[in-house]
Amino acid sequence: MILAIGVIIIGRLFSLQVLDTKYSVLADEQGRFRKVVYPDRGILFDRKGRAILRNTVIYDLMVTPGKIRGMHMDTAAFCKILNIDTSEFRKRIITAIIKNKSYRPSVFESSLSDEMVARINESMYKWVPAFYLQERPVRDYPYDAAGNILGYLSEVTPEFLKAHDGEGYQSGDYAGKTGLERSYEKVLMGQRGIEYWKRDNKNRLTGKLDNGRFDTPAISGQNLHLALDIKLQMLGEKLMDNKVGAIVALDPRTGGVLAMVSSPTYKPNLLTGSERGKHIGQLLLDPRLPLMNRAVSATYSPGSTFKTLQALVGLQEGVITPTTTFLCTGAFYGCGRPMRCLDPGNFKLKEAITFSCNTYFANVMQRAIGNKAFSSPREALAAWDKYMYAFGLGHKLGIDMPSEKPGLIPTPALYDKMYPGMHWNFCTFKSVSIGQGEVNVTLLQVANEMAYLANKGWYITPHMVDSIDGGDKYGLLDSFKMRHRPLNIPDSVFEAVQDGMQGVMERGTGAAAKVPGIIVCGKTGTVENFYKGKKQKDHAFFGAFAPRENPRIAIAVICENAGFGASSSAPIASLMIEQYLKDSIPEPDRQARVEAISKMDLMPARILDAIRLRDSIRQAKALKLEKELMKKAKDTMDIRYEDDSELPDAPQKPEKEKESVPIKNVKDTVGFNAIIADKIKLPLQAISKS
Amino acid sequence: MRDQIEISKGIDWLMVWLYVILVSIGILCIYSVEYRQDESFFNTVFSLNKNYSRQLLFAVICGIVATFILLTDSKLFTAMANISYVFGIILILATFVIGRDINGSKSWIPLGFFNLQPIELCKIFTALALAKFLSRPETNFEKSSSQIIAGAIVLTPAALSILQNETGLALVYFAFLIPMYREGLPGIYLIIGFSLAILVVATILVEKNTLAIILTAIAIIMILSFKKTIKRNKSVLFLIIFLWGVSVGIQRFAVPYVFTKVLHPYQVERIMNTFGADYQPDQNAQKLTAEDQKEIEKLNEKKKATENYNVKQSKIAIGSGGFWGKGFLKGTQTQGDFVPEQHTDFIFTSVGENFGFWGSAVVVLLYVLFMLRIVNVAERQRSKFSRVYAYSIAAILFFHVSVNICMTVGLAPVIGITLPLMSYGGSSLLTFTILIFILIRLDADRQMILR
After folding, report:
1. In chain B, residues 384-403 whose CB comes closer than 8 Å to chain A
2. Which residues pair with A518 in a beta bridge?
3. For the CA atoms of chain B, what is the radius of gyration?
4. CB contact under 8 A, A10 and B317
5. What DSSP line would sit under B150-208, residue for residue?
6. Least CB-packed of A112, A146, A174, B145 within 10 Å?
7. Residues of A611-628 as b/e, b for ≥16 C-beta within 10 angstroms?
8. Is residue A88 part of a domain?
């Protein structure tokens, strides 16, 4: 009998332990805990090695309610340090117990101030083991600038997790949401470590499994070196105070972005601390759209800055020479209804650029479209389009920033669609010749155009990041190492255009933007725009590069609804050029200029109206509704949530116009299209959807 | 030196070693249950606030007790047998007055640093008393009066412990049927006893009508298969019908009667729980309000959930050990406190997890070897007293070991009895130490005739 029982038991043990594997799976599930160890995120440096985005630590005060019992704690003294009363103390403890049980630590107070940390540390010994301080790494922006470029982190969404399956993300993680944090998420995040812990029946971690034999250590994220000059960036942000617009400054030789300002902007440190949720809500609801990066996400008609490119086309196609003269009597009469011109006179190419003669460039494009070398205007337009694409317009340049817009260059197909069954010719789109009408560019494209002119025929794709510490493992920077020389245009052609641009700064529309001691080539632009069918004050454009020989900076500035460019965009560009080339602005009168421009209030009336509207009581109710919507959308929503194909690792998917909920809300109050500023809205949408 | 030789003379060292090995494994296992990475061994071992350090202390005390037992004269045990039995019964009765309530049974006497459970201890006295009674020259075990007296000796403590809500321990006393059988108790009693036990358990576990049908079916099959015999001898038919009647009677009337009229509801509930059955009191017999009914249902559900949890966790812990085990102090289930009562009733799970199949098999084989050795020793005794006593111990060990291990691997219902020598607990360890060392002492004096 004894033997029989012995055999039965051993047999049962054999089946349980050796034959059946389900129990070890169950045991692993409940007894093991896979803990993800987060590495330090990569640090971002500017071109001079200054850290502009780094990691810092903030502290949370944690409590294990179960351990308070029997500690004889002086609750009153504790509350005094934390500036709370005892009933609040009790409330928090009870909440902690309800939420997280009494034997597990919960957050008692999060994101303590430095002062609070110091005070708590002083008397911490009285409160252990029930209380302890827990570090939490957060991102820190030492200059509190360049928020639009650097971007911020937010909690990952289920869609993001789905798209990045197998890359080690889990719910509750943070990932780059906008800016470089998003573009370079893959390098910045580093490699997560995994630790296996033992866990007990109450889900507490008791110790490392096998003393950490199965653990993989965390590898810190790679640091990025940017082309950005943080001093220049800060000057740009200061100059753009109280204005709506953007600045893009490029190094024409490398394509590196020296500064990229979008105004109004926000202080990036607002989005790191404990108040993050509150701030992000405010920013998303702000009718000035501070979270938008106007340098790459807003498109404008380029206005007269476009003329420089028309000159190139004309010269290259042989329809004009530098000495070709057109008479301007005050308007362009080539197409029946006259197109107004500012300065009447008899112009050669150089002067035409210098004085921004509309008639001249209307004639140039009329000749180009009517060129006998092509059988029809549509073929001529197609040829013209090739130039425009070569100059980097009408398509995304491919900068390492999310949410870049392609802009718009009119194609024969577009006009077929706009005028179905009808004939169209140059006169149909004559305003395109002066950078109005069916042409849209981003400010980045304008800056790149300036770099192209500065380099006399080539450009490197603009980019923020120059190098990655520890090597570019994913080939993210490969496209920034190639010179694009799409057309073979002789230097003489460029010289002619540059002559004209130099003239702009010396005698023409850009005289206000002179930089002492430096030869600058520039071009102003004044762009008509409409908002809800009403004509608004013109946008002020300015594009320039300097010095003319061996150019080191190419810059584009837009001040929305600022009127004539000479008073705002041009001086801003000039100050930026000086700051960059001289690394400071030495003369006191120029310094005073900085202050004056910074104080100059050019906030467009429509934005002020929108703000007033938002603040009105009636609107407040609607906003409350929006806020609820926002809560649902959480702060994980980007202002412009595009496909994840924007991230460098994903294959490029066919473009889709996808707008998030918040943007639609904002649209109702201010009219988002207004800022993109365009006369013709319908065909634009039709194009982008096709 | 001479003393030592005298003590060690005739001692069965195999049993002593088996004892030492099993106790040591037990302490190691208790240590592995309580082991935490961040605690230093030396800090905890002397502070006595950990179970393994206390168990170590118990082991030392047991060692001293064992030495004393080996030093006593075997005649003392025969002389003390009856008195000690009376003493044990008095102790059990005393718990009704001064007992402490632990885990719902009032069977413990607080003794300062540990609690004594007289029912545990009484196993020794019962074994001695039974041996004493059966070895009396005037006892004729063929006579039913003697059999009844022997039965009374064994079943009195069992009955008392049922009253104390320790059904599991009460069941152990049925193990004494085995030595009685060895001494000439007709096999029919064993069969009747076992049949009765099975019938009672079946009554508790199986729905009553289903059981009645099953019993009837068995009776019909019996009649059909003994057709020829019945033709020759009608009395066989009557016997079968009589047995069937008795069985159904017990199942339908006797057990419900005892449960509803004799025992208190809480005792019934506890018995039911012992076998993992729901307690549903008879509405007619007990006037219960709807609320009480609900309350009881809730309790049942909760109990069932915990019990399922225990067995499931126990199986997970053992099953996850695999063939070679996870290694000593590396069991995640053991250290995570997943198995409730792991240091006492479920100590075998830590063997299973830490040492895997080979380890648990070795432990099982050690027990088997121990029991076979005791049976072997029993058979070489010249005096009846020693033999009866040895068989009693083998039976108790057998019952404890098989039920406990079967319970941990999910082969038997969860009955709260310990794994001898390994489970944490002073009472249990001390009881088995005394049981075993008295046997070793008796065996050393096997040339003597003891009565």
Report:
1. 394, 398, 402
2. A515
3. 24
4. no
5. HHHHHHHHHHHHHHTT-HHHHHHGGGGHHHHHHTT--HHHHHHHHHHHHHHHHHHHS-H
6. B145
7. beebeeeeeeeebeebee
8. yes
Interface residues of A toward B, Cβ cutoff 8 Å, are 1-3, 5-6, 8-10, 12-14, 16-18, 20, 22-24, 26-28, 30-32, 198-202, 206-210
Q: Could you give the CA distance from residue B195 to residue B293 in angstroms, rounded to a whole number?
A: 33
In a domain, residue A110? The reply is yes
Q: How far is CA B100 from CA B116, B270, B429, in A?
A: 10, 18, 20
Say whether B365 and A6 touch across the interface (CB within 8 A): yes
> Is A206's CB within 8 Å of B411's CB?
no
In a domain, A288, yes or no: no
Cβ of residue B38 closer than 8 Å to a chain A Cβ: yes
Best of A23, A34, A103, A210 to disrupt the B interface (most B CBs within 10 Å) is A23
| Confidence class for position A667, pLDDT limits 50, 70, 90 | very low
Go through B413-438 and write b for each residue having 16 or more CB atoms within 10 A of its CB, e for each that does not. bbbbbbbbbbbbbbbbbbbbbbbbbb
Least confident of A539-553, B2-16, B217-231, B268-282: B268-282
Report in angstroms the alpha-carbon separations of B182 from B122, B175, B176, B391, B409.
22, 12, 10, 8, 30
What is the SS3 assignment for A449-472? Answer: HHHHHHCCCCEECCECEEEECCCC
Q: Is the pLDDT of residue A638 over 60?
A: no
Q: Is residue A85 part of a domain?
A: yes
Residues in chain B: 451
How far apart (Å, rounded) are the C-alpha atoms in residues B335 and B329?
8
Which residues of chain B make contact with A17, given a CB cutoff of 8 A? Answer: 318-319, 321-323, 352, 356-357, 360
Distance from CA of B407 to the nearest CA of A (A): 10
Please tell me the predicted confidence (pLDDT) of residue A264: 87
Closest CA to A412 of A396, A397, A392, A432: A432
Instruction: State the Cα–Cα distance between residues B449 and B451, nearest whole angstrom.
Output: 7
Nearest beta carbon to residue A12 from set B321, B371, B409: B409
Query: If we measure between CA atoms, which residue out of A139, A135, A132 comes closest to residue A154?
Result: A139
What is the nearest CA distance from B353 to chain A, expressed in angstroms? 9
Structural domain including A110 reads: 58-137
CB contact under 8 A, B406 and A9: yes
Which residue is listed with tokens 């919507």? A629
Task: Domain count for chain A, please give it.
Answer: 1
Is residue A514 within 8 A of residue A505, CB to CB? The reply is yes
Output the CA–CA distances (angstroms, integers) from residue A168 to A38, A41, A209, B74, in the order listed. Answer: 11, 15, 21, 73
With vertex at residue A318, the alpha carbon angle to CA A317 and CA A321, rounded to the nearest 5 degrees, is: 130
What is the widest separation between alpha-carbon atoms in chain A?
123
Q: How far is CA A438 from each of CA A245, A353, A434, A449, rounded to the nearest angstrom?
A: 21, 22, 11, 18
Kindly report the pTM of this predicted structure.
0.63
A462 pLDDT tier (thresholds 50, 70, 90)? very high
CB–CB contact A209 B36 (8 Å): no
Query: β-strand A153-155 against A174-176: which pairing, if any?
Result: antiparallel
Name the residue facing B409 among A13, A201, A208 (closest C-beta): A13
Tokens 């400010």, residue located:
A443
- Highest average pLDDT, of A89-98, B19-28, B112-121, B162-171, comes from B19-28
H or E stretch at A59 = strand A51-63
| Residues of chain B contacting A203 with CB distance shorter than 8 Å | none
Query: How confident is the model at residue B22, as a pLDDT?
Result: 94
Contact call for B318 and A199, based on CB within 8 A: no
How many beta-carbon pairs below 8 A join chains A and B? 111
E-only strand ranges, A212-368: 224-226, 245-250, 257-263, 299-300, 326-328, 331-332, 339-340, 345-347
Question: Which among B322, B333, B402 has the least Cβ separation from residue A31?
Answer: B333
The pLDDT score that the predictor gives to residue A375 is 83
